């Protein structure tokens, strides 16, 4: 049954991508940025609803009322494609830090490019870090929120990876709050398996963490502690212990 559901889901997934590419991409470059987000994110709204309907997923969303009015840095755990779709809708307009290869995907990548993401080359980490710090601050000053997955890549449920502090650094330098987000999307939409699984998908938004007068290390410790505590509550797969930090690390802020 899960295989059939997944096949039906992907039929709608690719059909929606084609329809949105034909109808929405041509006028999108001529729209103001906020209007462009609203138009192109209609695809995201459809995928989130289609996934729930076809794959037997029950959403349990909490804490959206905690989102600040102005721009912020959103830091979320990364397990699957689902959160890359949904978190675009959380606090729009939002600029996402993503791998550069995604922009080369026909239709999908073209739409992403129009949303002013920060596309980095992960094979050059030093250059990528500088790019994230520079462009992230610019996006915040332009009134966009910035979405970063501090683990840097998808991490399967039941696994853990050390958090990168670039998002906390951007927030501290710009003086905007950090909003932590925890979810168990990888248990319903696996990162390395095309077959979707029914069940409860939980996502919780935390209280904004103020950055004024604080170091990026302090902020990141609080973010990671909150996310891991929530994951321990909502995950069906047990959480592992944290990885030991490296002996030395060059400070960013």
From TrEMBL:
GO terms for molecular function: 1-acylglycerol-3-phosphate O-acyltransferase activity. GO terms for biological process: phosphatidic acid biosynthetic process. Keywords: Acyltransferase, Membrane, Transferase, Transmembrane, Transmembrane helix. This is 1-acyl-sn-glycerol-3-phosphate acyltransferase. Pathway: Lipid metabolism. Residues 72-186 form the Phospholipid/glycerol acyltransferase domain. InterPro entries: Plipid/glycerol_acylTrfase. Signal peptide: none annotated. The chain crosses the membrane at residues 7-30. PANTHER family: 1-ACYL-SN-GLYCEROL-3-PHOSPHATE ACYLTRANSFERASE. It comes from Halomonas ventosae.
